[in-house]
């Protein structure tokens, strides 16, 4: 039980470090191309809006918590 808890904590710490070092990840919908093949031609990817990278979920959570804290302490 202790070993499983330690593994989970190490995984979370590693993901938090990854989000701090590299907040953006490659878009999985367009394979980091920024464009997609559509029936009528080529279109920009809807998820990344042609930017090829998206904000990681952990970084989005960190940004939201910072905003809540900043607004709550004013």
Walk me through the structure.
By secondary structure, this protein is of the alpha+beta class. Helices cover 49% and strands 19% of the residues. The chain has two helices and four strands; from the N terminus they run αββββα. The radius of gyration is 17 Å and the shape is flat. The N and C termini lie far apart (42 Å).
Strand order of the largest sheet: 1-4
Class from helix and strand fractions: alpha+beta
Model regions low in confidence, pLDDT < 50 over at least 5 residues: none
Helix content: 40-55%
Structural descriptors:
74 residues, alpha+beta, two-stranded antiparallel sheet, flat
Q: Can you summarize this structure?
A:
The chain is of the alpha+beta class and about 70 residues long. Helix content is about 50%, strand content about 20%.
């Amino acid at each position: 039980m202790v070993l499983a808890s330690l593994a989970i904590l190490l995984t979370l710490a590693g993901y938090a470090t990854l989000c701090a070092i590299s907040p953006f990840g490659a878009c999985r919908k367009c394979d980091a191309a920024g464009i997609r093949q559509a029936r009528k031609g080529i279109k920009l990817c809807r998820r990344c809006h042609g930017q090829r990278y998206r904000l990681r979920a952990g970084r989005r959570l960190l940004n939201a918590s910072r905003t809540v804290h900043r607004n709550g302490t004013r």
